[in-house]
UniProtKB/TrEMBL annotation:
Annotated organism of origin: Citrus clementina
Principal cellular location given in the protein's record: membrane
Transmembrane intervals: 21-49, 61-78, 90-108, 114-136, 148-166, 178-199, 279-302, 317-340, 347-366, 378-406, 418-438, 444-467
Highest taxon, organism lineage: Eukaryota
GO cellular component: membrane
Record membrane topology: Multi-pass membrane protein
UniProt protein name: Major facilitator superfamily (MFS) profile domain-containing protein
Keyword Nucleotidyltransferase: no
Gene3D superfamilies, per the entry: MFS general substrate transporter like domains (1.20.1250.20)
Keyword Membrane: yes
InterPro entries: MFS_dom, MFS_sugar_transport-like, MFS_trans_sf, PLT1-6, STP/PLT_plant, Sugar/inositol_transpt, Sugar_transporter_CS
Lineage: Eukaryota, Viridiplantae, Streptophyta, Embryophyta, Tracheophyta
GO molecular function, one term: carbohydrate:proton symporter activity
Cellular localization per UniProt: Membrane
Annotated ranges, domain Major facilitator superfamily (MFS) profile: 25-472
Length: 507
């Protein structure tokens, strides 16, 4: 369906109407993130029962928790080149199939080795999903709705984590041998359904243009734009970004050498332009700090943290963990509507500042609880409230902005593999926290671990303030100009220098 009525235009002549078809495409693409979120959330509870049945020690628990992200790191690096070669849509299909195989193996799980193997395969699927869902959503959306649509994968991750926690609670009532296997294996069903459902989605118009398939790109743009004029404007900009003559009206042109992702890493690392270097630093930095500030410690080891705070029964631990999932999902849902109104930068700075305060409070509460000779309800309540408030601050800014920001700032020919590098860093930090948190809190106390995360969050705030300009309302094709020449404005943001090439290009 193509909507031609345009009754409300902005200063650039683009429709203000929300395109439902683009939204539907982003929702379907983001479904892969629900499966990943489920895999993450369900393991937090499943580990309690896996440890009991398979008699594994804390080191093996850390490996089981963190190996997913080590494999996701590898998967994300392969996913960037794969999506440049076979397209964004078929990369999502491939991720679904990989998830399905991993879930079946984990659900079978006769011993630790097979369970670990299934977790590794699922990790590769995670790497593909994390890289491709936000890229597809960013490339199919307009500048006015890109923040909302590109944040949907992060929202779906939170929904998946919540479903994993709920699954823990209900499957825990089954026998020890059957319960945790069903927790892990049930993810194979939606993976199979999604693999078939995605086939009916359109391909990214920007990927089609990179392949020289300008006619096909125009057909997709007519679906995801609100008018023929808007589709023509977006195709004009995409042609320039893809290296084609914007006035050319051919349906097919010979693609450039970058159409299959060749030579991209050289342009990212060996001879980047100043703008690309700044983009790469911003993308790597935001992914690094998302997990270096300790979110995975709470998502994956929530039951252990609440036990340290004073909750003893398994049922109450799992219920408290469901609260983690509910808080995360609620505030990310709220954030999706703010990204295109408030902007990425403001949400990022407010979010990180709140995280600093709440991480310090969690550290203080857990230190009191651990030091108390008797059960301290005051320390318990403080720890739980501060944990949920930290999750709220994280979910309203850093969580969605990380994925929106990194998916939108790279130039077209570098986007897939640039995002893949960011995801690899993200998974590396996730794995570092997942595989070391138990050892860390045993070495410096659990309160000390959260004080450490608070210190890292302070560094993160200064990084975002100085190196992350506002991208709200900018088209994907304007991002390289935004990072090309910068000056500090009165609000601490970054703006194009008057008289620069970027400034002249916008006149």
């Amino acid at each position: 369906m193509v909507v031609h009525a345009v009754d409300n235009l902005d200063a650039n002549g683009e429709s203000q109407k929300f395109n439902k078809y683009a939204c539907a495409c982003s929702i379907v693409a983001s479904m892969i993130s629900i499966i990943f979120g489920y895999d993450t959330g369900v393991m937090s509870g499943a580990m309690i029962f896996i440890k009991e049945e398979l008699k594994i020690d804390d080191v093996e628990v850390e490996v089981l928790a963190g190996i997913l992200n080590i494999c996701a790191l590898v998967g994300s690096l392969f996913a960037g080149r794969t999506s440049d070669y076979i397209g964004r849509r078929y990369t999502i299909v491939l991720a679904s199939v990989i998830f399905m195989v991993g879930a079946v193996l984990m659900g079978y799980g006769p011993d630790y080795a097979v369970l670990l193997g299934g977790r590794c395969i699922s990790g590769i699927g995670v790497g593909f999903a994390l890289m491709i869902a936000p890229v597809y959503s960013a490339e199919i959306s307009s500048a006015k709705s890109r923040g909302f649509l590109t944040s949907l994968p992060e929202l779906c991750i939170s929904i998946g984590i919540l479903l994993g926690y709920i699954s823990n609670y209900f499957f825990a009532k089954l026998t020890l041998k059957l319960g945790w296997r069903l927790m892990l294996g049930v993810a194979a069903i939606p993976s199979l359904v999604l693999a078939f459902g995605i086939i009916k989605m359109p391909e990214s118009p920007r990927w089609l243009a990179m392949q020289g398939r300008l006619g096909d790109a125009k057909k997709v743009l007519l679906l995801v734009c609100n008018s023929t004029e808007e589709a023509d404007r977006r195709l004009h900009d995409i042609k320039i970004a893809a290296g084609f003559d914007p006035n050319c009206n051919e349906d097919y042109l010979k693609p450039s050498k970058h159409s299959r992702g060749k030579g991209v890493w050289k342009e990212l690392f060996l001879r980047p332009t100043p703008a690309v270097r700044r983009i790469l630093v911003a993308a790597i930095g935001i992914h690094f700090f998302e997990h270096a500030t300790g979110i995975e410690a709470i998502v994956l080891y929530g039951p252990r943290i609440f036990k340290k705070a004073g909750i003893k029964s398994k049922e109450k631990l799992l219920l408290a963990t469901i609260g983690v999932g509910l808080t995360k999902t609620l505030f990310i849902t709220f954030s999706t509507f703010l990204l295109d109104k408030v902007g990425r930068r403001k949400l990022l700075l407010v979010s990180t500042a709140g995280m600093v305060v709440m991480l310090s409070t969690v550290g203080f509460g857990l230190t009191l609880a651990e030091a108390s000779k008797h059960e301290s309800k005051w320390a318990l309540v403080l720890s739980i409230v501060a944990t949920y408030t930290f999750l709220a601050f994280f979910s309203i800014g850093l969580a969605p902005v990380t994925w929106v920001y990194s998916a939108e700032i790279f130039p077209l020919k570098l986007r897939a593999q640039g995002v893949a590098i960011g995801v690899a860093v993200n998974r590396l930090m996730n794995a570092t926290i997942s595989m070391t948190f138990i050892s860390l809190y045993k070495a410096i106390t659990i309160g000390g671990a959260f004080f450490l995360f608070a210190g890292i969050a302070v560094i993160a705030w200064f990084f975002f303030y100085f190196l992350c300009p506002e991208t709200k309302g900018k088209s994907l094709e304007e991002m390289e100009l935004l990072f090309s020449r910068r000056s500090r404005n009165s609000n601490g943001g970054i703006e194009i220098q008057p008289g620069s090439n970027a400034s002249n290009a916008n006149k």
